[in-house]
Amino acid sequence: MSISSILSEIAQGIEKAISDAASEVGQALSDAVGAASAVGSEISQDIENITNTLGCTVQGMKDSGYTYYPALGIVNRAIKNANINGKVEPVSNIFQLFRHGVVIESAEGNYYYVGGASPYWGAGKDFFALQGGACFFISDSSIPTLMRKANIIVVRLKRRKLTSAPWQQPNPPEGCSTPVIGWFETAAENSRDAGGVMPNYLPYYTSLPFHALKVPGILVGISGDKLSATALKESLKLTSDQPPVPFIVARTVGTPFQQKNPNAVINGMMAVAVLDSQLQEKLCNLFITQDDSICNSLSTVKGFSDALIGAPVFTAYSCLSGCKEPGIVGLVASATQLAGPVVSLVLVPLPTAYTDQAFEQLASALGVQDVFNESVRALGNAREVIISLQSTYHISQTLASAIVDHLDWNDREQMMTDAKPYVENYHKVVEAIRSLVEKSGEMFLVGRIQECVESTVDEDYETWLDEATDCVYSDVDRRSITY
């Protein structure tokens, strides 16, 4: 079956799903935009453009590397109960503890996570954004607690370069610009409803056995009176390097509306997602060709999950000159489950210019300026302490940066105090491995010692020694070596 015929089937399915739920969709969207017309019916009337733009989006996103991979946000420790709409709600499953988003590098060279936040985050110092196997993070005990007051956050992060995989960031959509009718064509496309794709990792986890989803359980344990999400974080990191699953989205046009977020009023746009597993599987099979099991898992998605908050929505315009490059049009800020498989989405647009100032303005608009400011301050502390460690202890920038990755970045003086044992253990680990290498007589390994020790920094001396030794001898038979 050709791509065009599959897209035609998907289009018919979208039209039917939206048509069946038209009155409910129309009411939900009308309430949001303050319009009197049945917007759901209008969407079904623009199905041709939705289909064309959906096809362009899928075509542009296929085999495109990490550009369209969403980020996954998670903290290392969480609280067991959260106050949600005035009611205390306990954690019962992993979907309450992670969110989707994007990681973007500004023109000034700073990394930002813009995406979902969970009301259960807090109790630790580390927040991680995992995208394409790459790890971005911030280590400040005040930040996870600040994050949980909003559903979309903007936070500056440090990239863990030694262990990070290749990474590419999403861009805004390309317009229909041509030398002759570019402005007219772009205006025409922007004034019509458009199909799009919401890449996400939800089916990777809804397809797991029930016991793997429970909290506490395999992926989230109990540490004192808090929850430890370290295993879930490691799982998300591995998953983030896999192809995301595409969900069908129709972005609607109309007057931007305002929504309370619970501590701010934000400008947003509307979209409709059609979470019909059969339609989704057809789209998925166009998108992911190397592993059928991923698309088969779509039947385990029973509706919208809070884990999808922050998920990016991409659109590619279908122009007279052909399909344009897909780009991100917004992040899912909230959702309402409507009739059947239809979900009404509120999208928060990202800045079209990726500058530090633009992200600061977005944070202010979202009411999360305090989170943003604290992250900027914490990153500043981390950078200053890296320089201080280099000059004080005459160590490399690589080692200083790796040590800082294990500290709480809240206070510079305390960071220097907490860093000292790491420096002392570094010298001990180097000497211990050097002695081992000399004893084994394999002196050609000496040149690997520093790199391996610097790349395996751990707060526990024995763990650090074991991992660094394994690194040095990774390609050598160690059966004859004795400690």
Question: Can you offer a commentary on this structure?
Answer:
The protein has helices at about 5-20, 20-35, 40-45, 45-60, 145, 180-190, 200-205, 210-215, 230-240, 275-285, 290-295, 355-365, 370-395, 395-405, 410-440, 445-455, 460-470, and strands at about 70-75, 75-80, 80-85, 85-90, 100-105, 110-115, 125-130, 135-140, 150-160, 195-200, 220-225, 225-230, 245-250, 255-260, 265-275, 310-315, 320, 320-325, 325-335, 340-350. The chain is an alpha+beta fold and about 475 residues long. The chain folds into two domains: about 70-365; about 370-480, no CATH class. Strands 10, 13, 14, 15, 16, 19 and 20 form a seven-stranded antiparallel sheet that branches. Strands 1-5-6-9-8-7 form a six-stranded antiparallel barrel. About 50% of the residues are buried.
Radius of gyration: 24 Å
Shape: globular
Number of discrete domains = 2
Q: Biggest sheet: strands, sense, closure? A: 7 strands, antiparallel
Number of helices: 17
Strand content: 15-25%
Helicity, in percent? Answer: 40-55%
Instruction: Show unreliable segments.
Output: 32-41, 478-483
What is the oligomeric state here? single chain
Distance between the termini: 63 Å
Please identify the structural class as seen in this structure: alpha+beta
